[in-house]
Amino acid sequence: MLRYEGIRYVSEKQVVVLDIGCAYTKFGYAGEAAPRGIIRTEVKCPETKEIRQIFHYKDTQDLYQLLVEFIHQLFFKHVVITPKDIRVVVIESLLSPTQFRDTLAKVMFRHFEIGSLMILPSHLMATSSLGTDTALVLDVGYQEATLIPIYKGVPVLKAWQALPLAAQAVHQYINQELKTKVPDVDITEKLIEDIKVRTCFVTTLERSNKLETDDFPAPPPSVKYPGRKSFEIPGYIREKSFEVLWERDNDNLSIPTMILDAIVKCSIDSRRELAENILLIGGTTMAKGFVSRLKTELLTLLRSNLYSEKLKLTTFKFHTAPSKPNYTAWLGGAIFGTADLPSRYITKENYLQLNRVPDWVCLVDNQKETFSYNM
């Protein structure tokens, strides 16, 4: 009892910060340098007893039930506080579905009765840890890669880019190849992710150009994966697993073209500054060789016919955030959460009265004379 009361007393002075991603959720307190923990965004369904990912919901009611189970586990098992009347900061993508945001707010206020909620855009929060207000933020997570330029603290929404090129595409390739090479091994999502992190890497552009030709280089050595049933991972799988991120589709789009297309859509006077302030976030960007390959791809594309006339750039510079890329957005939210900004919070009283979440992009919700957030 004393331990519980002590934790509750500390929590009243701090703000809980949550970054709910498609694959992993980061949680902790505002003002701290790193999250208290990172857990998978999944929950055991009480009805079917199956492990389900939160973002694989059927409808709004199904999402509500999944979030109730997941948030309950998050607060009482991991953060270890009672959520009643506390302040919560949630980091979300600007491209996140409105359905998810509204359902999450309903769960927070009506089921767990939190005191107030602040929803912050992940791309903008990622720049809070850099000491700059201008950056080209590329988030390569699990389901998709999203890019939004931030110029003078304002997201340039007309230049946003998104493609389904992320960890999920890499996992699909590894899964297909392993089923052919080791059919007697039970291939699970956790096993694929472990193989990707431990053994796979992003190859160089020079080697990549030769992989599909007759002059293909010798593959890297195979490695033996230890487990209940040890098996060998061929070298070509280790090298080619990340190639899907760089292959252009029918519209000539890939991760490097996302960056260049976004810069083209920005004003001319901001292009050079954005090109020299690129920030990579998301777990997929932590792959060995990712940054080096991205730099080479960008410089090569600049000399191609596609962009040689559109962009007169010569260099690209990348920021090194004071955290791992997979929780940089969380760190920005933890920094922002320490500021006393009552007008940015949605209070429980306001939510129960209006029964909706304000949209900060909407002009109606930005008119103070018609809508007040800190009633």
Strand content: 15-25%
Number of helical stretches of at least 4 residues: 13
CA-atom Rg in angstroms: 22 Å
Strands in their spatial order, largest beta sheet: 3-2-1-6-7-15
Roughly what is the average pLDDT, rounded to an integer?
88
End-to-end span in angstroms?
35 Å
Number of strands: 15
Fill in the keyword field for this structure.
alpha+beta, 6-stranded mixed β-sheet, 15 strands, 36% helix, globular
Detailed description of the structure:
By secondary structure, the protein is α+β, with helices and mostly antiparallel strands. The chain has 13 helices and 15 strands. It has helices spanning 2-11, 60-79, 98-111, 122-126, 167-181, 189-199, 205-211, 235-240, 255-265, 268-275, 290-302, 328-336, 348-354; strands at residues 16-20, 24-29, 37-40, 42-44, 51-53, 87-92, 116-121, 135-140, 145-151, 154-155, 161-163, 223-225, 231-233, 278-281, 346-347. The strands form four sheets. It has a six-stranded mixed β-sheet, with helices on both faces. A hairpin with a 4-residue loop joins β8 (135-140) and β9. α5 packs across α6. It is globular. The two termini are 35 Å apart. Mean pLDDT is 88; it is low at 1-11 and 369-375.
Itemize the secondary structure elements and their pairings:
Blueprint: H1 2-11, E1 16-20, E2 24-29, E3 37-40, E4 42-44, E5 51-53, H2 60-79, E6 87-92, H3 98-111, E7 116-121, H4 122-126, E8 135-140, E9 145-151, E10 154-155, E11 161-163, H5 167-181, H6 189-199, H7 205-211, E12 223-225, E13 231-233, H8 235-240, H9 255-265, H10 268-275, E14 278-281, H11 290-302, H12 328-336, E15 346-347, H13 348-354
Parallel strand pairs: 1-6, 6-7, 8-14
Antiparallel strand pairs: 1-2, 2-3, 4-5, 7-15, 8-9, 9-10, 9-11, 12-13
Helix pairs in contact: 2-3, 5-6, 9-11
